Amino acid sequence: QVSRVCDQVSRVLCDQVSSVFDLVSKVCDHVSSVCDQVSSVCDQVSSVCDQVSRVCDQVSRVCDQDSRMCDQVSRVCDQVSRVCDQVSRVCDQVSRVCDQV
Description:
By secondary structure, the protein is mainly α. It has helices at 2-63, 67-100. It is rod-shaped and about 95 Å long. The mean pLDDT is 84.
């Protein structure tokens, strides 16, 4: 009888542990999927930022000839650059967290 009780307890515990592992597995899959999506978005943002940076460099070269006309463009480029830096920092942090998961 004791043996039967032990078997039942063992079975219940094993079932619970199994269900916990299943849950953890699902959560991990979901986190992994989210990380992949975030990584993809970060790559796209990085690409856009690179393009904007290139355009700003070209504009800057042209602007050297007429600085008054280009002050506003320069200001916008600086702001965009700042935003891109911040986004890049956030993406790096997210990437580090995702690597740990």
